[in-house]
Design a protein that fits this description.
By secondary structure, this protein is mainly α. It has one domain: Rhodopsin 7-helix transmembrane proteins (Rhopdopsin 7-helix transmembrane proteins), CATH 1.20.1070. The protein contains seven helices and no strands. Helix 1 runs antiparallel to helix 2 and helix 3 runs parallel beside helix 5. The termini are far apart. The mean pLDDT is about 90.
Length: about 230
């Protein structure tokens, strides 16, 4: 086998590991939307690896469906809603979480199977990921506002990496990459890095959010002391 194949498998294993580890961490933080999306990525990457090792087409189909879920709705809708817990203090109920996931699944089925989506599908995926990138710009702004320069730089790198992948995914094949393996090596690494970067950005904004009420309380107590 070519060395490219081993790099492909290693990149896939990296995505499986990072999405699983940080997906479980997010579930422990009770952010079920982000945790579920990360674990959907784990499931997709696992099936992709099994397909690479066995050639089973069913595993490739499962992976591609999960990929469609994440590109169309999991990242641009579910991930944004999950990140809004630390950017907008938005904490949906369990019922709302279920609605997000079921709605995303229904939307994926339509995009995946409807004849009228065959031609616009690539543009739909590019548009939805681009909207997610716009939201990441806001995340960077929030990180900078709380002094998290390193995490902000990390998110900028993740944004640039994943937006590049999204922009060439269905439009610009790499010359000589007939089996698309080189592209997927970069794509898998990009998504792996995104799963790590967003987790630490989430934690940084969560810490800043927890400090703010304490600061407000300190200012209030200080004001009371001055009036005594």
């Amino acid at each position: 086998m070519e060395s490219k194949f081993y790099l492909y498998c290693l990149a896939d294993i990296a995505l499986i590991a990072t999405s699983l580890i940080y997906g479980v961490k997010l579930l422990k933080k009770r952010n079920y939307l982000l945790g579920i999306e990360w674990l959907v990525t784990t499931f997709s990457a696992t099936n992709l690896l099994i397909n690479a090792l066995t050639g089973g087409h069913i595993f490739l189909s499962l992976s591609l469906f999960c990929d469609a879920f994440s590109r169309g709705f999991g990242v641009p809708v579910i991930t944004i809603a999950g990140m809004m817990a630390v950017t907008h203090r938005y904490k949906p109920s369990i019922a709302a979480d279920v609605t997000y996931v079921v709605g995303a699944l229904a939307g994926t089925v339509i995009v995946w199977s409807a004849d009228f989506m065959v031609e616009p599908k690539p543009y739909f995926y590019l548009a939805t990921w681009s909207l997610f990138s716009v939201y990441l710009v806001y995340v960077v702004k929030r990180l900078l506002s709380v002094g998290e320069k390193l995490n902000a730089a990390s998110v900028i790198l993740a944004l640039a990496f994943t937006q590049t992948i999204a922009s060439i995914y269905d439009f610009y094949p790499i010359p000589g990459d007939d089996d698309h393996m080189t592209f997927y090596i970069f794509a898998l690494l990009a998504w792996s890095y995104l799963s790590v970067s967003l987790y630490y950005a989430y934690c940084a904004l969560e810490r800043a959010q927890e400090k703010k009420p304490n600061l407000n309380r300190a200012y209030t107590l200080s004001g009371l002391e001055r009036h005594r």
